Amino acid sequence: MDAYRTPDDELLHRAEAVLCGPAPKNLAASTLEEYRRVAKRLIVTAQAAGREWDGIERLTDTKSTHYLQRAVWCRVCRYEVEASLNGLRTGKLSRSEALSRLRDWVPQAEKYRPKTKDAPDPKMGQPGAWLQAVSKDGRTPSASRSKKGPVRDMPEDWLRELWQIAVAKRYRHLDTLAVLLCVGCRPAEACRGIAVRITPEAHLQFAVCGAKVTEDNGQPWRLLTVAIGDDPAALHLESLCAAQPGERIRVRPALTPDALSTSIAEIAGDKWGRRISCYDIRHQRAGDAKLTFAGDLEKVAAWLGHAAATTLRFYTRLPRSSSCRGPLPIDAAAPRPVRRRTRLLDFDLDAENTF
User: Fold this and answer.
1) Are 219 and 305 a contacting pair, CB within 8 Å?
2) Which of 88, 91, 157, 195 measures 20 to 30 Å from 255, CA to CA?
3) What are the residue ranges spanned by the domains of the chain?
C-alpha cells in the first residue's frame, strides 16, 4: 500500500486487478437464465442485510447449492466492479459514489473468484472456507464423504473386529458379511449372489456377477481368489464349502443393497467414531488389492470389476508400511481387457505413500 498515495488509489488498483484476473466462462442460454434467477434472489438478500452481509456461506449448508450460488455471485461481483469503474470513467457516477460501490464489491469480488481450484491467495477468501461456516440453523455443514479418506485412519484389525462384533451379535447375514470382508464386492453384487468354492490349492475362489456394467464399461463377471490363512471370515466360508465338498456354495442375502448396507452399519454403530458401510469394506479391500498387486493395474482393475484403469484413482491406496488387513488376494480374472488411458496413472499407483 506504500506505493499508493491514498486508500482510494489502492482501492481503484484492486478493482483493476479484479478485471485483469480470470473471467467467468461463457454459459449456455438456459444456464444463463437460471443464473439470472439466482442472482436476483442473492441481490435481494444482500440488500436486505446491508453492511451485515458477509457472503453466501450462511445461505445454505448443501454443497451443490453453494457451488451454484458461488458461481452466480462471482459473476455479480465482477459485473458490479466493472460497472462502477465504467461509471467513473464515463462520468455517469461521481467519484464518491463509484468509490462507495467499490468498497462494497471489490472485497466480495476478491473473495469469490471464478477459478476456485487455483492456489488460494492468503489476502483473499479461502476456497472451501464455507465448510467451516455456521449454517442458518446453527449447524456446521458437513463435508462430503471421500471415497478414499475414511478407511485410511481405521485400526489395522478393524475388519477382524467387525467380524467378531457380528458373530457376538449373531448377525443374520454372517455369510454375506464374510464374502464382503474377503473380496469387497459391491452390495448390489452381493445381493445377486456370490458363488464360492475351495480351489485345488486350498484357496477360496469367488465368482462375482458384476454390477455397473454397460457395453463398454465394467466387468460382467470376475473370479477372485484369496488365501484362507487365519482370517476368521475366510475360515467361516471354508467351513461352509467343506460341508459340500467338490461343489460351489451360493451366498445370497434376502435383502436389497440398501438394506444390506444399513444392516452392516448397525452392527458396530459408532464404534470407530462414525457408521461404516459396505463401501468402506470395499475401499479397504481395494487398498489391500493395490498393496498386494503393486504395479499390476489390470489385476487391480479386475479385482474391483473395472474395465478402465483410470477408475482406480478413486480408491484407497494404503501406505507401504501397512499390511493387508483382510484375506490376502491371490488372483483376479475378468473377461474384458483393461483400458489404460494415461501413463500418469502408473506414477500415481507406484508413488510413495500415495492414496
Assistant:
1) yes
2) 157
3) 7-132, 149-350
